[in-house]
Amino acid sequence: MSAQTKPQHGGFELEVGKQQESNIWTTSKVEQLMIAIDDGYKSKSTPFHDGNPNLRKGNIVFEYTQMEISEIKKCAKDICYFADNYCTVMTDNGLMTIELRDYQEKMLRQFAAERFNICLASRQVGKCLLHSTEVLILRDGTAIKTTLGRLYFESLKLQRKLSLLERTKYSLWKLYEWLDVFDGKQDDI
User: What is the DSSP string of 1-53?
Assistant: First the structure.
């Protein structure tokens, strides 16, 4: 079968032959594909991971323009430039690019310069991920000491019934907590 050209749809043209659709992608082809998808076109091949246009597939051939290459070089040279221009956070108003504070820029530059870093920061900045991290909760003027793990599972139980996997994790975590307490009591004997 010789190569034929499919009719244009939404400004996007695909060549179909013995090989599948064109495997070399450019920014303009991706933009044309997005317009075509919005118009109802179904493509056999896309550069997107699981059909999500925010995620690019791995191992695709992508041809960059000189402007795109220079932008990639800027991002590679300066992590703060990359963060200021391409990192986003979800807010009540949708996705917004972040605006780094001075200390955040300083930390990013330090992380880029050195492999190992020590940060003096409180627990409330979102870096405590251990289930055994102890926290104080103020309830009706009374301070209650608990752990993040217990707080997490207790709040889940209030919202809905736990799945089998969650119940298993909770049981293992409680066993770990019990063994840790038991081990501490053995030291006291």
Answer: ---EEPPPBTTB--EESSS-S--EE-HHHHHHHHHHHHTT---S--SEETTEE
